[in-house]
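About this split. The held-out portion is used to measure sequence recovery: a designer receives only the structure tokens and must propose an amino acid at every position. Recovery is the fraction of positions where the proposal matches the reference. Here is one held-out target exactly as it appears in the evaluation file.
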């Protein structure tokens, strides 16, 4: 499984990276802001090895996660034959506007920080990403 972790907070990024490194046959890349996320997504797509899973923080500098999600889905829709990545939003925000907005823009899951790894495993299992 190829994973992109998009998180601006170093500690959160490190925790998620440690979790995914413990998974067998998992390749992880990281991005610390929305612009880097789009760049990483495009490079992976162009190399013919797109991401299977994107863990996407909502509150980030330069471009927030909601905007990154929208842009990725537009790119995927314009590319025939490109399998859509599973995108899980991660955030400390529990307000309905953020949650509904994320699902409206076709996220596959939503986890509130601090990440409960039992919930993450359950979600990944449901998405068949683990």
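Reference sequence for scoring:
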């Amino acid at each position: 499984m190829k994973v992109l972790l998009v998180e601006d907070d170093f500690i959160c990024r490190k925790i998620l990276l440690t979790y995914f490194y413990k998974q067998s046959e998992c390749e992880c890349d990281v991005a610390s802001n929305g612009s880097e996320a789009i760049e990483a997504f495009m490079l992976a797509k162009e190399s013919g090895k797109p991401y299977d899973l994107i863990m996407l923080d909502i509150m980030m500098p330069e471009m927030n996660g909601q905007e990154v999600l929208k842009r990725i889905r537009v790119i995927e829709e314009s590319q025939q034959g490109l399998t859509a990545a599973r995108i899980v939003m991660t955030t400390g925000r529990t307000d309905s506007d953020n949650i509904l907005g994320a699902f409206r823009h076709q996220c596959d899951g939503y986890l509130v920080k601090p990440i409960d790894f039992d919930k993450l495993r359950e979600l990944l299992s449901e998405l068949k990403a683990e």
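Annotator remark: The domain at 2-127 is CATH 3.40.50.2300 (Rossmann fold).
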